[in-house]
């Protein structure tokens, strides 16, 4: 896998993936940016949510669950010192559907956390305390 990041102006950068997708990154005014786009650390947080959500939805669809919506609420804590790395990340999944199996949702979240989500596992192996919870909403 390859990518590149190019400086645009101020503290704004554009990342381009080898697959041709682009994303803008910035930082807050506090750090010299304009706040016009997510910071790299916000991108990491959203990446763990995206990676794990893809796993959960994929597994539930394979289990023939009628998933209508899946949202993951992310919360985190960072070190007070430089580098201000993540020390804790919590993912709370809210899965909505028809006749969803609580056990299937729980299992999908656990499998993503323990086996499939590369971003979550990488962060956990790097010393971040990554935790997960879920709730099921039926329509």
Structural class, please? alpha+beta
Percent strand equals: 35-45%
Which runs of at least 5 residues are low in confidence (pLDDT < 50)? none
Task: Record the strand order, biggest sheet.
Answer: 1-2-3
Distance between termini? 40 Å
Radius of gyration computed on alpha carbons = 17 Å
Q: Would you give the CATH topology of the largest domain?
A: GMP Synthetase, Chain A, domain 3
The main pleated sheet reads as: 3 strands, antiparallel
- Helix proportion range: 25-40%
| Count of β-strands | 6
What is the number of helices?
A: 3
> How many domain units?
2
Which geometry do the CA atoms define?
globular
Overall average residue pLDDT: 97
CATH-scheme architecture of the largest domain = 2-Layer Sandwich
CATH top level label of the largest domain: Alpha Beta
Helix/strand order, N-terminal first: EEEHEEHHE
Name given to the CATH homologous superfamily of the largest domain:
K homology (KH) domain
Protein name: OsmC family protein
InterPro entries: KH_dom-like_a/b, OsmC/Ohr_fam, OsmC/Ohrsf
Task: Walk me through the structure.
The chain has 139 residues and is of the alpha+beta class. The chain has three helices and six strands. Strand 4 (66-78) and strand 5 (86-98) form a beta hairpin. This is OsmC family protein. InterPro entries: KH_dom-like_a/b, OsmC/Ohr_fam, OsmC/Ohrsf.
